[in-house]
Amino acid sequence: MQNVILFDHPVIQTKLSDLRDFSTDYREFRALLGEIASLMVYEVTRDWPTRPQIIQTPLEKMTGQVLAREVTLVPILRAGLGMAEGVLHMLPEARMGHLGVRRDETTLQPIAYYQKLPPDIADTEVLLIDPMLATGGSASAAITALKNAGVTSMKFVCLVAAPEGIQAVHRDHPEVQIYCAAIDRQLNEKGYILPGLGDAGDRVFGT
Ligand code: PRP
Ligand code: URA
Question: Which residue among 51, 107, 120, 171 is the active-site one?
């Protein structure tokens, strides 16, 4: 599938299996989600541009490479927050924006309720994070909000994606790359991913 990058790494898959297990409590769930998010960062950032920087080692001067652009991490509230710490662990210099989007439980349509982004977000590399891509409504609305803020370089990083969600994001934003650790079978009649891992927000926060 074009613009979908699936992580088949055995360590990520092992942690994802633990995460899916219904007996995993919220403390363990939170820890696992953060660990997977950290592991994903290497691959997600692989093609980011670097620029040369002169540095002085204890022995001599040399030209090293550093990231060319600032980084902004944008979790979709609430469940995206569960991945944020893990990403920040690898990219501590990143700034954070927040997008609050929740699904209407009946219509499954996204409702945007909060937005706070760094003013110069347009000049940065943006990672939009949310563990679940179900109908795709929330991700698509969040990507639109980022585009409206001038963002031109962004990636969407999730954990579990449904085919329906991938299709919707591709339809609305074909150029945006989607990174995920699993593409599950389908949605159920309530818009939950099967087999999935349940309600990610509830499992992260113990609600
Ligand atoms: C969950 C999840 C995504 C969204 C995915 O959030 O974290 O944001 O559902 O579903 P979609 O692809 O069909 O839009 P939810 O709406 O449950 O809000 P919460 O994180 O505040 O619980
Ligand atoms: N949101 C979740 O948290 N889980 C799903 O399965 C679908 C949407």
Answer: 107
